[in-house]
Every structure is written in structure tokens, then in C-alpha cells.
Amino acid sequence: MNSLSKNPLHSLVELGQSVWLDDLRHSWLHDNTLARLINEDKVSGVTSNPTIFEKAIIETHDYDLLINNLLHGGRSIQEIYETLVVDDVQHISDLLIQIYEETGGRDGYVSLEVSPHLAYDTKGTIAEAKHLWSRVARPNLMIKVPGTNAGLPAIRYLISEGINVNVTLLFSVNRYRDVAQAWMTGLDDRLAKGANINKIASVASFFLSRIDMLIDSKLDQISAPIAQKLRGQAAIVCAHQAYQEYRKITGEERWKRIEANGANTQRLLWASTSPKDPAYSDVKYVEALIGPNTINTMPIKTIGAYRDHGMPELRIEEKIDEIRELSDDLAALNIKFNAVSDELERQGVEKFIEPYDRLLATLAQRSQEIAS
Predict the structure, then answer these.
(1) Quick check: helix, strand or coil at residue 111?
(2) What's the rounded Cα separation, in Å, for the pair 113 and 355?
(3) In 3-state terms, what secondary structure has residue 261?
(4) Fewer CB atoms near the end CB (10 Å): N or C, the chain?
(5) Could you give all domains of the chain from N- to C-terminal order, each with its CATH number?
(6) Which listed residue (6, 55, 123, 144) is catalytic?
(7) 144 is catalytic
(8) How confident is the model at residue 5 (pLDDT cuts 50, 70, 90)?
(9) What pLDDT digit, counting tens, does each position of 51-79 carry?
(10) Is 19 strand, coil or helix?
């Protein structure tokens, strides 16, 4: 990027899209890396997941002293994991609190995930979400809850209790619609109790690269020439459809009534924005989905790539007819988002369980190494 030109990440913000960081290292909290991202790149939120924490602990020794202290305190491996995570999240929350306050609670959040083992356990999800909310004790925390069938009633309940929720692992418009209804019903439940709803926030997170990974693999098995032309298009189509549904929902009378009572919209968040196929542009899932009232959460590598060669323009409202045609072409090949969403959801849960379990195993091994 020309040193005299504007940082493209700043332009994203001016176009109405928030930039969040989908990455974390313990050292970034103390060497000003995160502070620089906030101040220089307009990063206004942070998301985490078991994979991110696993990499942070496995690939560094940043936590060794903390682990040692906790071991000597007689803490279990699960307690050590939670303490490390909560400590980092609290530090991030404190770094973001000014943004939270300046934006009236629109941005400035850090997200923390419930155990992926609870993805199909409503009561377990609620219990852990309430525990983590209380433990972190920051107003700019979002609890990540998967948008599974079991997650829907948990989302409704948590919102009714005033707990911010980042709904994860969304892959279809049908499930997003269910999530939006759970969000609004939770707000209605809270209003019925006479409680305030103007400080509750939620986002609905679509995992983009995972959609293309699965659907591209299906397209590769189809001999029709159009199949290869459709590679890498499915996630963008799905996101466009979700945004049109968002516009529809926020235009309905039910939402207008809730909004009149002080509620903010449940924004769409584009997650899994680092392309897995090296043939695709490294800013593919940023460039195509720029639009107002959306969030793009990016790994630090993607943030750097967009800073370097991003070309920000409003695009989410463009090419509606082309997106509809792509959707029809995919459907003609018997590839339908609602039909593959269950498979994507199941894979998504598994892909969080595996690093979560590896993380606990790594913590146990690291604890033994430190103790010896």
C-alpha cells in the first residue's frame, strides 16, 4: 500500500463495517501488538475459540509462569485452563472498554466460547455461559454459543438474562432466521420482566471458508463444466442471502417494536475469513462482503493482507441478480445450503472439540514439564 494512502481498514469502518480480530497471543496484550491494532487499524473487537487458545499455548511459552503458579496452588487442569483464558479475556476487555463506551455498546467486545462439548446440551450451555459471564465480570464480554438446535433456547434464555451472545457456527439462512427469532424472543422475555434491553448485544457469525471447503469438495466430484466455475462461490452466496434476510428481519414490525424499546440490531459477523484454498485471494472473504451494520473478524495475517492491498467499496448490496443466478446454478447441481448445513455444523463442532481436548492434554503435559 502507498504510504501516503489511507489504511483500507479505516475505509471499512467508514463504510459501516466493524473490524474485529480473530486471533490472540498472550504476548500481544503486553507488547502493544493488540493496542496498535486497535489504534492504527481500527480493530474494535476480538473473537477467540478453542483453536486460537490451543495455538497460543502450544506455540509459545508465554503461559509457563502462570501455569507454574497455578500448579503450586493446587489447581486442576480444567481450572488452570479457565484461569488462563479468563485472565486474557479480562485484559482484552479492559483494552476495548473505551471503544465499548464510545460506541454505546455497539463495538468493543471480546468473545469467549463455552465448551464445545456442550454444543448439544442446552442446560449445560446455559450453566457454563452464566459461570463465565460472572467470572469475567465485564460488560463488553460476549459468550459464544453455537447455533445448534440445542443452542437456540440457550440463546433466548441468556439474552433474557442480559448476557451478550455471539452465535457461532452458522451455515444457512434458515438457521440464521431461527437464531434471529431466538434473539428477539429473548429481548421480549426481558421486556416482559420490566428489564432494560438497550445494553444487550448479539452477533450472528457465519463461518465462510468452511462453507467453501465442503461445497468445493462436492463440486470437484461433479463432471459438469459449470461445477468448476462455481468453486469458491458458495460462501459468498450464502453471506449475501443472510444479509438480505437481515434486511428483511430489521424491516419487520416485530423488530421495529423491539427497537423502539432501545434494542440494537443483532449484526451479521463474517467469520472463518482466512481462505483455506491457496488459489483464492487472501482477502476474498473481506473484499466481497463489505456492507453497513456488519462485522468482519479476521486473523492477524488477514488484517495485514487487507492493510496492504485491500480495495474497500460497498459490495454486499451489489450483484443481487448475479448472486441469485449463482444460487440457482448451485441448486441445479443439487447443492443446497440448508441440506449441507447439518454436515457443516457437525464438522464445525468436531473441529472445536478436537483442539479443545488437545489444549487440555497439552496443558497437562506442560504442567508435568514445568513441575519437573
Answers:
(1) strand
(2) 13
(3) coil
(4) C
(5) 8-208+253-314+341-366 (3.20.20.70)
(6) 144
(7) yes
(8) low
(9) 898 888 888 889 988 888 898 888 899 99
(10) strand
